[in-house]
Amino acid sequence: MKAFVVDKYKKKGPLRLRDMPDPEIGADDVLVRIDAAAINLLDSKIRDGEFKLFLPYRPPFIPGHDLAGTVIRTGANVRQFKAGDEVYARPRDGRAGTFAERIAVNAADLALKPTSLSMEEAASIPLVGLTAWQALVELGKVKPGQKVFIQAGSGGVGTFAIQLAKHLGATVATTTSAANAELVRSLGADVVIDYRTQDFEQLLSGYDLVLHSQDAKALAKSLNVLKPGGKLISISGPPDIGFARSLGMNPVLRLVVRMLSRGTVKKAKRLGVDYSFLFMRADGGQLAEIAKLIDAGAIRAVVDKVFPFAQTADALAYVETGRAKGKVVVQGL
Known about the structure:
Elements (H helix, E strand, L loop, with lengths): L1 E4 L10 E4 L9 E11 L1 H8 L18 E8 L11 E4 L12 E5 L3 E3 L6 H5 L2 H14 L7 E4 L5 H12 L3 E6 L4 H7 L3 E4 L5 H4 L3 E6 L3 H9 L1 E9 L6 H6 L4 H21 L2 E4 L6 H12 L7 E5 L4 H9 L6 E5 L2
Parallel strand pairs: 8-9, 8-11, 9-10, 11-12, 12-13, 14-15
Antiparallel strand pairs: 1-2, 3-4, 3-6, 3-15, 4-5, 5-7
Helix pairs in contact: 3-4, 7-9
């Protein structure tokens, strides 16, 4: 099959189109023809080698963490899917590879795609949808009437998280550029802050939850907008000891992680708030719940651009510019 591969870890390294062996499926796997795949910054970080200590891939490997496609065949233990089903998924860590014609996915990571979405729209959902769900529903336990601050509202996670937070009954604040203010308002944002001309720390206070996705300076400010007992959930770091334990890191790596987050954890405790790092995981059950919300009209897909498969490397470069509004998607061959 045709696939784009990373030949070696290298910052801004090239993706190379080459022939790769067809995937082998195990008893719990589903073989999927990839009709569309979304691009994520996670793909460039893995290519650059930023995560190789705890999420190693042996080059050459196929990147890609979002897909929508059609089931070709199923493993012996799979009962919930059949050939011809239209599905979507974020394959679990260690089994990336959606920049290809086909992929084998564990059935537990897979769900029937939302019927109201095209393949391209459906491919844009899994990683950002699961990130928002695990932050706001699973960890944050957002309730009606709470105040939620979502950074970078016009990005992939932001566009989904704003809609989910509003569905959960929260008042939502977000940051974006003036050019994207109308977009985030149309998604449900109640308070829109122009990050170029306004300081959110001066405008926000008493928030129940912050979904942090920016740099260390924004993290320090975000802790200050929370009310006592509030929660900051970060998807951009620093990783915390809970994350290290979940990956089964050895004692040396656990110590490194503890030191990385030490200052943030200390400040959070001093302010009487909670800090946690989220590295989202694959979950087909949660994707099934998300599909219900989408088909009910509570959440819509936000797709900036669709590239042909041959331009996958260009699509990744575009995402790295940080200018995308919502998600960038590549069509399957």
